[in-house]
Design goal:
Strand content: 15-25%
Number of strands: 16
Distance between the termini: 54 Å
Helix content: 40-55%
Radius of gyration: 23 Å
CATH topology of the largest domain: Cobalt-precorrin-4 Transmethylase, domain 1
Largest sheet: 5 strands, parallel
Strand order of the largest sheet: 1-7-6-4-5
Number of helices: 15
CATH class of the largest domain: Alpha Beta
Shape: globular
Structural class: alpha/beta
CATH architecture of the largest domain: 3-Layer(aba) Sandwich
Length: 405
């Protein structure tokens, strides 16, 4: 996708060097750089009460997030005399979004904003998740200058979903129905008259759909069960005969792959090997950065003896929540939003792994989370929307507790 005229920009404005000092000051951490250079490990405290921090090999800002944040600052610099808006959170990290507000970027998702008052003099930044086809059309119709930071991995999913729609296949999307990316991806399926979509959250929902593919069932009960997660006019008897799999790029990789295999097996049983290609398609639409961070934390857990794991990132960040789920299967895990969650050596405020991201900022307090004495090994990772300065501040906070643990 290239820049169109002077009202649509996707490749930045050539201002990276100008805004680099600002971005570096806001989001980078010399401490994290030093720990990475030292083999991803740091220790502090007395010998008998030593705390060792072990970082996952890959964590924090991915290329797509880094690019989106960079373009947002470039847009603010490029249009100094105009109103600059974001359609919503650029990424799921409150620290980053707060910094953008301080830079003078307004959020159309805020209660006091009026999207219907946008005009040709306004600049609107599209977030890394992308926006729906209808939202894009409305912004274009209003003549707004658009700065598109949609992640390339998301665009790759869209291409496959559009291809499914063009060929009359229903897109089965593994994702969270309220997530901005999933809503945007689903809208791509409606670009062609025969395009349809159905969103499944997890293995259990996928199993219900697979059972219907194999054996049919109560059509009305099926539509009631998936109300709000299917395209308008969806008919399971018609629209589950030809399907293509896709996913929200930040979902748990192993689950997306497993769900894709479930649908392949269901279609194989229904139509047979010879006809499978006419009824089932699948492409690898898992974000490489998401996969790298999940692989890195799995390796950390396998290679290091850890007493607990800290996962740092926004509570509504899907990829961060999935990292916490992976860790919790192996070791005591605390998903924290920021260093303020580390209240003391005795108390930590965290999001329970059992709470879905869509439930909002539900938190609990754990006491006695750090042992009173003895050596301690703490694993640490962060979601793709978590800047390094937040990770560095978490480490410094832990270090401040070293005299009391």
């Amino acid at each position: 996708m290239t820049d169109i005229g002077s009202t649509y920009f996707r490749r930045g404005f050539g201002l990276t060097k100008e805004i680099e000092p600002i971005v570096h000051a806001e989001y980078h951490s010399l401490l994290v750089d030093r720990i990475r250079d030292a083999g991803n490990e740091m220790s502090f405290g007395e010998l008998d009460n030593r705390v060792t921090i072990r970082l996952a090999n890959s964590f924090g800002f991915c290329y797509g997030v880094d690019r989106a944040v960079d373009y947002a600052y470039q847009a603010r610099r490029r249009f100094p005399g105009r109103r600059v808006f974001l359609t919503g959170e650029i990424i799921h990290n409150p620290h980053v979004n707060d910094r953008l507000r301080e830079a003078g970027i307004r959020f159309l998702s805020d209660a006091d904003e009026r999207p219907d008052r946008l005009g040709a003099d306004d600049v609107v930044i599209l977030p890394a998740f992308g926006v729906t086809v209808s939202d894009m059309a409305q912004l274009s119709d209003r003549g707004c200058t658009l700065v598109d930071t949609t992640c390339g991995s998301v665009l790759n999913v869209w291409k496959n979903v559009v291809r499914y729609a063009q060929d009359g296949f229903t897109s089965i999307i593994h994702g969270k129905v309220k997530h901005e990316e999933t809503r945007a991806t689903a809208s791509q399926a409606l670009k062609y008259p025969n395009g349809r979509y159905l969103i499944v959250l997890d293995h259990d929902e996928a199993a219900i759909v697979c059972n219907y593919i194999r054996s049919g069932g109560d059509r009305e009960a099926f539509l009631a069960r998936f109300a709000g997660t299917v395209s308008p006019g969806f008919d399971p008897d018609r629209d589950l005969t030809r399907i293509g799999c896709a996913n929200q790029t930040t979902m748990l990789m192993t689950e997306s792959l497993a769900i894709g295999e479930m649908f392949r097996e269901a279609m194989l049983e229904r139509y047979g090997e010879a006809a499978l290609g006419s009824h089932f398609r699948a492409f690898d639409t898992i974000c490489s950065a998401t996969q790298e961070r999940q692989d890195a934390v799995i390796a950390l857990l396998a290679e290091q003896a850890l007493d607990l794991m800290l996962v740092v990132g926004g509570y509504n960040s899907s990829n961060t929540c999935n990292l916490a789920c992976i860790c919790a299967e192996k070791v005591r895990t605390y998903h924290i939003a920021d260093p303020a969650c580390l209240i003391s050596a005795d108390e930590v405020r965290y999001r329970p792994v059992s709470v879905p991201c869509s439930a909002g900022g539900i938190q609990e307090i754990a006491r006695g989370w750090l042992p009173a004495s003895g050596r301690l090994a703490v694993g640490l990772t962060a979601g793709a929307s978590t800047p390094n300065n937040i990770v560095g501040e978490v480490i410094r906070k832990l270090e401040s507790f070293s005299g009391t643990v």
